[in-house]
Amino acid sequence: MALASLDLDFDDGLKHEGAVDSILLRRPCRVRLFRAFMDESCSCRIHDWFLVLSRQAVEILDISGFLTLPSSVFTCGRLTSLHLSYCAVPMLPRGFKGLPELRNLSLRRVDLQEHGQYQLEEIIATSPLLEELTLQDVNIPGEFKQRVIQGPNLGSLHLHSLDDHGWDLGDLPRLDSAVIDICDYLGNRDFSKFLSGLASLTELQISTYHQPVVCDYDYGMGQKFETNGEFQNAQCTDGMCAKLQFVDMTGIHLFTNEMSFIEVILSKARLLRTLSISLSHGAELAMSNEDGLKKLLNYKKASTHAEVIFAGCNVTRLFLPSEPGNA
């Protein structure tokens, strides 16, 4: 009896290219999943493999290894999940029509071509069903310019990077969860635009570890302010945090604009259930823990049910009772 489809998993390495040839090139059975760790020894064969996988309407492609992929990887137009790790990603082929069925895109420690942010933006824009996006330590050479992440169905976003690659959040009407882990300095951004891109968000994690010598603060997605420049809360409308319930901030230095960001979250997020603030370890803080806590406790809370964790301690009960009409 013929098999409906095959799952091919070579995660421990492709040691016998001939076996892959035998399965892909000589058997008519459709391959649903193809997972492999590759190296340069496979470079003369993978172009043909991707072409066959494309004709067989492969759905899940998970490739890792220290090699440069051929552009034929983007001919697999029926993909629902694409995971690339540790490899060099080629430019898009001519006539690229997008990945109309892609729901999960994960790029981890890959090297894009120069100005690859344009390429990445095009992949995202031509994947209208995309629900999960992970960009972790993606190397993009060349000058950084403002680029936009947007998608009608994107619900989960994970950004981790040592550098600012010019990403802004665009129209993300279904974004529910975001993890933003930016470890280096970021360029100036419109903070109100950043928050408006998170309007549908219920869970937000921000990690920011930047060097204590320069008193600037980034909000993980590109907002950078001088510490003596108060962020204007008036720029933020209540709708920007309308659905936000869980916020986790780590690596905080208690800079002025970090505190302003916290104030915005507390004062605008009416459904907030938990705000957790972890201080940076091994770096000089802008103020003492005691002064930071004192300032925090003066902020108004839009949600009377919000639990606030500061430096590992639950300080919820230390807040002053809300005045009638302000809760």
From TrEMBL:
Domain F-box/LRR-repeat protein 15/At3g58940/PEG3-like LRR: 49-179
SUPFAM superfamilies tied to this protein: RNI-like (SSF52047)
Protein name as annotated: F-box/LRR-repeat protein 15/At3g58940/PEG3-like LRR domain-containing protein
Phylogenetic classification of the source organism: Eukaryota, Viridiplantae, Streptophyta, Embryophyta, Tracheophyta
